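Deliverable D5.2: sample structural annotation.
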Amino acid sequence: MKENIVAIIQARMGSIRLPGKVLMDIEGKPMLWHVINRVKYSKLINKIVIATSTNKKDDVIEEFCKSNNIDFYRGSEMDVLDRYYQAAKVFKASLIVRITSDCPLIDPEVVDLVIKTHLSSDVDYTSNNIERTFPRGLDTEVFKFSALEKAYKEAVAPYQREHVTVYIYENPYLFRLNNVKNDKDISYLRWTVDEKADLHFVREIYKRLNKEDRIFLMRDILNVLEREPFLIEINKYVKQKSIK
């Protein structure tokens, strides 16, 4: 039976460090629009769904989805594991691709590489960040609905409910895991958006690469950074928030 591969992109307005970041402007479009547009270039994903919360602050995300004809689901704000599980059930996903809305440089070729690796392996969960070799911000997780359901039923710690897949990769004796590695370890590069410096970096990349007729990829960004290595300094010292 053919897999129904659904990308579920979590998005909410209540970021602690940079509130409202998901709708902040990058080259005339909200950040969330760019994430969705880039994921659309995947050759393997059947559907894209935005999973936001029922908090009134997130009404604007629902409005954004409706005005752009994008599927969405609204659920628990802090129990994101429940939100993902319910969204996956509603849209009948057999395979879930988890992407976060603060990754406006997500590369559809990397996404498809993780999906292909998962499909060719007898595992429950595949990602490119168990052992991180890709830039932070290209994170892609692919997992079976059965694995999501098991995590939903068994995970109890608050951080396991908030971060969706932690219960899965913290329990390799319960789930079969796989990791996709890049040819070269470039995990020191930071391409996600948590603080103003991150947004500044992303906007500088878009200024140089954003074109209407094509989408730029990881290799294009690396070429820019090779020519202009000072750009790396913009957000080099931003610390990643701990999940616990």
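Annotation notes: Residues 129 and 139 are 6 Å apart (CA to CA). The chain is about 35% helix and 15% strand.
The annotation will be released with the project's public dataset once the embargo ends.
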